[in-house]
Write a structure and sequence with these properties.
105 residues, three-stranded mixed β-sheet, 27% helix, disordered C terminus
């Protein structure tokens, strides 16, 4: 069973994640004797543009490591970067057979 300090530390860690433009709702955070275990899936928030999730997570981990009571952080979360959507009309078109370069006829 978690101590009051461990529960408070987990809450504080969630707050650090909440300040970033990432969705940490599917993360599990466990604090056991100063060791922090973070697992689950983390993505960019839907409205966030140009966010590099792994960089945001790295910044959060760095902050967590500096928190009082933290001895070690085990980051086992899976990062899912947002898909880059191409604008209509900017697709690359390749004709069948290529048509470029030397011919083999």
């Amino acid at each position: 069973m978690a101590t009051v300090e461990e529960v408070n530390l987990a809450r504080d860690i969630r707050r650090v994640f909440a300040k970033k433009p990432i969705d940490s709702g599917r993360l599990e955070i466990q604090c056991i004797r100063g060791r922090i275990y973070i697992s689950g899936i983390i993505t960019a928030q839907r409205e966030a543009q140009g966010v590099i999730v792994k960089n945001e997570v790295a910044a959060v981990i760095e902050q967590i490591q500096k928190m009082s009571g933290v001895k070690q952080v085990f980051n086992e979360c899976r990062v899912k970067e947002p898909e880059v959507k191409k604008k209509p009309g900017h697709e690359e078109h390749h004709a069948a057979g290529g048509g470029h370069g030397p011919s083999s006829h």
